[in-house]
Amino acid sequence: MRITRLLLVLPLIVAFALPAAADFKGGLDFFKKGDYGRAKAEFEALAKQGMAAAQTNLGLMYSKGYGVTRDESEAVRWYRLAAEQSQAQAQNNLGFMYVNGEGGPRDDVLGLMWLRLAVESGYSAAGRSVQILEKRMTLAEVALAKRFAALWKEKWALAKTKVSQKP
To answer: Burial letters for 125-156: b for 16+ Cβ neighbours within 10 Å, e otherwise?
Structure first.
């Protein structure tokens, strides 16, 4: 019975997943061609549905002003949405925005927290930034950033557990 239901639902899942992937690829293609308006439209539709990669790309567009008015606060918003889904590139970019005071006040502790999470999420390029940043921070600030990162990971693990337990 369960297999029969799965076989009935699987084509619907694939049907909905394929257009989303195609739209994302289309957004990347538009972006690479410099057609930022169309890229933004593709990414925004997917980002509003929660796609972390699309949210990251919107963050980039707003942080650099690609096809939109440069808006660091909007970039932080999109990066945060993606970073909170463990999207490593977004965690890295959000960390840099905090460190540089872009989109809000400068905050090395939160910057270090996000950069450390980026490394742990597989974005190894952030490792050098972590080392440099830690050298200019106090031991107490580094310890606080590490604690914040640990708390964030606990929260993330708990949230994933709750989602996986839903019927």
So the answer is: ebeebbeebbeebeeeebebbeebbeebeeee
pLDDT at 4: 37
* Distance between CA atoms of residues 76 and 61, nearest Å: 11
Give pTM, 2 decimals: 0.81
Q: Which of 61, 70, 73 is nearest to 35 (CA)?
A: 61
Burial (CB count within 10 angstroms: exposed 0-12, middle 13-18, buried 19+), residue 51: buried
Of the candidates 85, 84, 109, 105, the one whose C-alpha atom is nearest the C-alpha of residue 95 is 109
Domains and CATH numbers, the chain: 19-159 (1.25.40.10)
DSSP string, 112-146: HHHHHHHHHTT-TTHHHHHHHHHHHS-HHHHHHHH
Tokens of 119: 């490394």
- What mean pLDDT comes out for the span 87-116? 97
